[in-house]
Amino acid sequence: MISVFRNTLAGLAVVAACAPAAQAQVNSTNQGYLVDQNFNVVTAVGGTVCVRTSDWTPARAAAAAACKQCTPDLCPVPPPPPAPKPEAKPAPKPEAKPAPKPKPEAQNVELKIELQGIPFNKVELTADNKKELDEFMNKEVGPLMKAPNTVGAVIITGHTDRIGSEKYNKRLSEKRALGVKDYVVSKGIDQKLIFWEGKGPKQPIPVTKFCDNKMKRKQLIDCLAPNRRVTVEVVGTRMVTPKPEAKPEAKPETKPAAPAAPAAKPEAKPAAKP
Protein backbone atom coordinates (compact mmCIF):
# COMPACT_ATOMS: atom_id res chain seq x y z
CA MET A 1 0.00 0.00 0.00
CA ILE A 2 2.81 2.38 0.90
CA SER A 3 4.52 1.67 -2.40
CA VAL A 4 1.35 2.46 -4.29
CA PHE A 5 1.04 5.75 -2.42
CA ARG A 6 4.65 6.61 -3.20
CA ASN A 7 4.20 5.75 -6.84
CA THR A 8 1.11 7.91 -7.02
CA LEU A 9 2.83 10.87 -5.44
CA ALA A 10 5.79 10.39 -7.74
CA GLY A 11 3.52 10.32 -10.77
CA LEU A 12 1.73 13.42 -9.60
CA ALA A 13 5.04 15.14 -9.03
CA VAL A 14 6.02 14.34 -12.60
CA VAL A 15 2.70 15.63 -13.85
CA ALA A 16 3.19 18.76 -11.84
CA ALA A 17 6.66 19.24 -13.22
CA CYS A 18 5.69 18.52 -16.81
CA ALA A 19 2.38 20.31 -16.89
CA PRO A 20 2.81 23.99 -16.04
CA ALA A 21 -0.80 24.49 -17.07
CA ALA A 22 -1.90 22.47 -14.03
CA GLN A 23 0.23 24.65 -11.76
CA ALA A 24 -1.42 27.69 -13.25
CA GLN A 25 -4.66 26.37 -11.92
CA VAL A 26 -3.58 27.00 -8.29
CA ASN A 27 -6.28 29.12 -6.71
CA SER A 28 -5.54 31.61 -4.01
CA THR A 29 -8.42 30.18 -1.99
CA ASN A 30 -6.62 26.82 -1.88
CA GLN A 31 -3.03 28.01 -1.90
CA GLY A 32 -0.60 25.18 -1.10
CA TYR A 33 -2.68 22.52 -2.90
CA LEU A 34 -2.74 21.28 -6.48
CA VAL A 35 -6.10 22.04 -8.11
CA ASP A 36 -7.71 20.96 -11.36
CA GLN A 37 -9.21 23.13 -14.07
CA ASN A 38 -12.34 23.63 -11.94
CA PHE A 39 -10.20 24.77 -9.00
CA ASN A 40 -11.01 21.63 -7.04
CA VAL A 41 -8.15 20.22 -4.93
CA VAL A 42 -6.52 17.18 -6.57
CA THR A 43 -6.61 14.13 -4.31
CA ALA A 44 -4.80 10.81 -4.32
CA VAL A 45 -5.14 7.39 -2.70
CA GLY A 46 -8.81 6.93 -3.30
CA GLY A 47 -9.62 10.60 -2.89
CA THR A 48 -8.59 10.78 0.78
CA VAL A 49 -5.26 12.64 0.49
CA CYS A 50 -5.03 16.22 -0.88
CA VAL A 51 -1.98 16.79 -3.10
CA ARG A 52 0.15 19.55 -1.65
CA THR A 53 2.45 21.90 -3.55
CA SER A 54 5.88 23.12 -2.51
CA ASP A 55 4.42 26.31 -0.96
CA TRP A 56 2.12 24.43 1.42
CA THR A 57 2.28 25.61 5.02
CA PRO A 58 0.01 24.88 7.98
CA ALA A 59 -1.12 28.54 7.98
CA ARG A 60 -2.15 28.31 4.31
CA ALA A 61 -3.82 24.99 4.92
CA ALA A 62 -5.84 26.54 7.72
CA ALA A 63 -6.85 29.43 5.44
CA ALA A 64 -7.67 27.22 2.43
CA ALA A 65 -11.24 26.77 1.33
CA ALA A 66 -10.69 22.99 1.37
CA CYS A 67 -9.40 23.04 4.94
CA LYS A 68 -12.13 20.75 6.30
CA GLN A 69 -11.56 18.36 3.40
CA CYS A 70 -7.75 18.22 3.59
CA THR A 71 -6.61 19.19 7.12
CA PRO A 72 -9.62 19.36 9.43
CA ASP A 73 -7.32 19.44 12.47
CA LEU A 74 -5.83 22.74 11.33
CA CYS A 75 -9.11 24.49 10.55
CA PRO A 76 -9.88 27.41 12.86
CA VAL A 77 -12.63 26.72 15.36
CA PRO A 78 -15.59 28.99 14.58
CA PRO A 79 -16.50 31.32 17.43
CA PRO A 80 -19.50 30.21 19.46
CA PRO A 81 -22.76 31.79 18.42
CA PRO A 82 -23.55 34.92 20.39
CA ALA A 83 -25.75 34.34 23.39
CA PRO A 84 -29.31 35.32 22.71
CA LYS A 85 -30.14 38.72 24.04
CA PRO A 86 -32.60 38.61 26.90
CA GLU A 87 -35.98 39.84 25.93
CA ALA A 88 -36.49 43.35 27.10
CA LYS A 89 -39.19 43.40 29.70
CA PRO A 90 -41.82 46.01 29.12
CA ALA A 91 -41.39 48.96 31.39
CA PRO A 92 -43.77 48.71 34.31
CA LYS A 93 -46.70 51.03 34.08
CA PRO A 94 -46.46 53.85 36.57
CA GLU A 95 -48.85 53.37 39.42
CA ALA A 96 -51.73 55.75 39.30
CA LYS A 97 -51.29 58.30 42.04
CA PRO A 98 -54.31 58.72 44.25
CA ALA A 99 -56.12 61.96 43.76
CA PRO A 100 -55.01 64.53 46.30
CA LYS A 101 -57.40 64.90 49.19
CA PRO A 102 -59.35 68.14 49.04
CA LYS A 103 -58.20 70.68 51.58
CA PRO A 104 -60.65 71.90 54.21
CA GLU A 105 -62.22 75.24 53.40
CA ALA A 106 -63.37 77.92 55.85
CA GLN A 107 -67.14 78.31 55.90
CA ASN A 108 -68.85 81.25 57.58
CA VAL A 109 -71.40 80.25 60.20
CA GLU A 110 -74.24 82.29 61.70
CA LEU A 111 -76.22 80.83 64.60
CA LYS A 112 -79.17 82.39 66.36
CA ILE A 113 -81.64 81.60 69.13
CA GLU A 114 -84.44 83.61 70.75
CA LEU A 115 -85.29 82.82 74.34
CA GLN A 116 -88.90 84.04 74.58
CA GLY A 117 -91.43 84.13 77.38
CA ILE A 118 -89.31 85.54 80.22
CA PRO A 119 -91.65 86.26 83.18
CA PHE A 120 -93.07 89.78 83.35
CA ASN A 121 -90.75 92.26 85.07
CA LYS A 122 -88.17 89.50 85.70
CA VAL A 123 -84.56 89.01 84.62
CA GLU A 124 -84.11 85.27 85.14
CA LEU A 125 -84.73 82.82 82.31
CA THR A 126 -87.40 80.15 82.65
CA ALA A 127 -86.47 76.47 82.96
CA ASP A 128 -87.47 75.99 79.31
CA ASN A 129 -85.28 78.95 78.32
CA LYS A 130 -82.27 77.44 80.08
CA LYS A 131 -82.88 74.05 78.45
CA GLU A 132 -83.05 75.66 74.99
CA LEU A 133 -79.89 77.67 75.67
CA ASP A 134 -78.02 74.56 76.90
CA GLU A 135 -78.89 72.63 73.72
CA PHE A 136 -77.88 75.61 71.59
CA MET A 137 -74.52 75.98 73.32
CA ASN A 138 -73.71 72.25 73.37
CA LYS A 139 -74.88 71.13 69.94
CA GLU A 140 -74.41 74.20 67.76
CA VAL A 141 -71.93 76.57 69.40
CA GLY A 142 -69.81 73.85 71.02
CA PRO A 143 -68.32 72.53 67.72
CA LEU A 144 -67.27 76.09 66.80
CA MET A 145 -65.26 76.30 70.03
CA LYS A 146 -63.00 73.42 68.92
CA ALA A 147 -60.00 73.99 66.62
CA PRO A 148 -59.70 74.45 63.72
CA ASN A 149 -63.16 76.04 63.97
CA THR A 150 -63.41 79.46 65.58
CA VAL A 151 -65.98 81.66 67.30
CA GLY A 152 -65.69 85.21 65.99
CA ALA A 153 -68.26 87.05 68.07
CA VAL A 154 -71.35 86.56 70.27
CA ILE A 155 -74.06 89.25 70.21
CA ILE A 156 -76.57 89.18 73.06
CA THR A 157 -79.60 91.49 72.93
CA GLY A 158 -82.20 91.90 75.67
CA HIS A 159 -85.85 92.91 74.94
CA THR A 160 -88.98 93.83 76.93
CA ASP A 161 -92.64 94.31 76.21
CA ARG A 162 -94.17 97.80 75.95
CA ILE A 163 -95.76 97.88 79.37
CA GLY A 164 -94.01 100.43 81.58
CA SER A 165 -91.75 103.40 80.89
CA GLU A 166 -89.17 103.28 78.16
CA LYS A 167 -86.36 104.13 80.56
CA TYR A 168 -87.31 101.33 82.93
CA ASN A 169 -87.68 98.82 80.11
CA LYS A 170 -84.30 99.83 78.68
CA ARG A 171 -82.62 99.05 81.98
CA LEU A 172 -84.58 95.81 82.37
CA SER A 173 -83.56 94.61 78.88
CA GLU A 174 -79.90 95.31 79.69
CA LYS A 175 -80.13 93.22 82.88
CA ARG A 176 -81.62 90.35 80.88
CA ALA A 177 -78.78 90.57 78.35
CA LEU A 178 -76.15 90.63 81.13
CA GLY A 179 -77.71 87.58 82.78
CA VAL A 180 -77.40 85.56 79.57
CA LYS A 181 -73.88 86.92 79.03
CA ASP A 182 -72.75 85.53 82.38
CA TYR A 183 -74.37 82.20 81.54
CA VAL A 184 -72.59 82.01 78.16
CA VAL A 185 -69.24 82.87 79.74
CA SER A 186 -69.75 80.00 82.19
CA LYS A 187 -69.98 77.69 79.15
CA GLY A 188 -66.45 78.60 78.04
CA ILE A 189 -66.95 81.57 75.68
CA ASP A 190 -64.26 84.25 76.03
CA GLN A 191 -66.03 87.37 77.31
CA LYS A 192 -63.82 89.44 74.99
CA LEU A 193 -65.83 88.01 72.11
CA ILE A 194 -69.21 88.97 73.63
CA PHE A 195 -71.12 92.13 72.71
CA TRP A 196 -74.36 92.88 74.57
CA GLU A 197 -77.04 95.58 74.67
CA GLY A 198 -80.63 96.20 75.75
CA LYS A 199 -83.22 97.35 73.22
CA GLY A 200 -86.16 97.75 75.59
CA PRO A 201 -89.48 97.52 73.67
CA LYS A 202 -88.11 98.91 70.38
CA GLN A 203 -88.06 95.58 68.45
CA PRO A 204 -91.32 93.80 69.21
CA ILE A 205 -92.24 90.46 67.68
CA PRO A 206 -94.56 91.22 64.70
CA VAL A 207 -97.37 89.00 65.96
CA THR A 208 -97.73 91.08 69.14
CA LYS A 209 -99.11 94.01 67.17
CA PHE A 210 -102.50 92.41 67.66
CA CYS A 211 -102.19 92.75 71.44
CA ASP A 212 -104.63 95.56 72.22
CA ASN A 213 -103.97 97.82 75.17
CA LYS A 214 -107.69 97.63 75.93
CA MET A 215 -107.21 94.03 77.04
CA LYS A 216 -107.25 93.20 80.68
CA ARG A 217 -103.80 93.61 82.23
CA LYS A 218 -103.14 89.87 82.74
CA GLN A 219 -104.42 89.12 79.27
CA LEU A 220 -102.19 91.82 77.78
CA ILE A 221 -99.15 90.57 79.71
CA ASP A 222 -99.70 87.06 78.36
CA CYS A 223 -100.22 88.37 74.83
CA LEU A 224 -96.95 90.33 74.93
CA ALA A 225 -94.93 87.42 76.37
CA PRO A 226 -92.96 86.76 73.11
CA ASN A 227 -91.47 90.29 73.37
CA ARG A 228 -89.92 89.51 76.75
CA ARG A 229 -86.90 87.73 75.36
CA VAL A 230 -83.11 87.56 74.88
CA THR A 231 -81.59 87.00 71.46
CA VAL A 232 -78.22 85.22 71.16
CA GLU A 233 -76.34 85.40 67.85
CA VAL A 234 -73.02 83.61 67.21
CA VAL A 235 -70.81 84.16 64.15
CA GLY A 236 -67.69 82.16 63.35
CA THR A 237 -65.96 79.92 60.85
CA ARG A 238 -66.14 76.19 60.41
CA MET A 239 -63.60 74.15 58.40
CA VAL A 240 -65.40 71.94 55.91
CA THR A 241 -63.82 69.39 53.57
CA PRO A 242 -65.59 69.53 50.20
CA LYS A 243 -66.89 66.23 48.93
CA PRO A 244 -65.29 64.92 45.72
CA GLU A 245 -67.39 65.39 42.66
CA ALA A 246 -69.31 62.27 41.75
CA LYS A 247 -68.38 60.84 38.37
CA PRO A 248 -71.29 60.83 35.93
CA GLU A 249 -72.66 57.37 35.38
CA ALA A 250 -72.04 55.93 31.94
CA LYS A 251 -75.23 55.89 29.94
CA PRO A 252 -76.16 52.48 28.56
CA GLU A 253 -75.70 52.18 24.84
CA THR A 254 -78.95 52.47 22.98
CA LYS A 255 -79.64 49.42 20.88
CA PRO A 256 -80.60 50.10 17.30
CA ALA A 257 -84.30 49.77 16.70
CA ALA A 258 -85.34 46.47 15.21
CA PRO A 259 -86.32 46.78 11.56
CA ALA A 260 -90.03 47.03 11.04
CA ALA A 261 -91.69 43.85 9.91
CA PRO A 262 -92.77 44.00 6.26
CA ALA A 263 -96.40 44.75 5.81
CA ALA A 264 -98.45 41.65 5.17
CA LYS A 265 -99.50 41.37 1.57
CA PRO A 266 -103.25 41.28 1.07
CA GLU A 267 -104.51 37.86 0.12
CA ALA A 268 -105.41 37.63 -3.55
CA LYS A 269 -109.13 37.24 -4.00
CA PRO A 270 -110.17 34.45 -6.35
CA ALA A 271 -111.17 35.73 -9.75
CA ALA A 272 -114.88 36.00 -10.20
CA LYS A 273 -116.40 33.35 -12.38
CA PRO A 274 -117.70 34.64 -15.68
Q: What's the tally of helices? A: 7
Largest sheet: 4 strands, mixed
What is the number of beta strands? 6
Task: Round the mean pLDDT to the nearest integer and report it.
Answer: 82
Q: What radius of gyration results from the CA coordinates?
A: 60 Å
Strand content: 5-15%
| Secondary-structure element series | HHEEHHEHEHEHE
* Termini separation: 124 Å
Dominant shape: rod-shaped
Helix-strand makeup class = alpha+beta
What spatial order of strands do you see in the largest sheet?
3-6-4-5
Could you explain the architecture of this structure?
The chain is of the alpha+beta class. The strands form two sheets. The chain has a four-stranded mixed β-sheet with strand order 3-6-4-5. The longest helix is centred in the middle third of the chain and has 21 residues. The chain is rod-shaped, with a radius of gyration of 60 Å. It starts with a helix and ends in a 34-residue tail after the last strand. The N terminus is likely disordered.
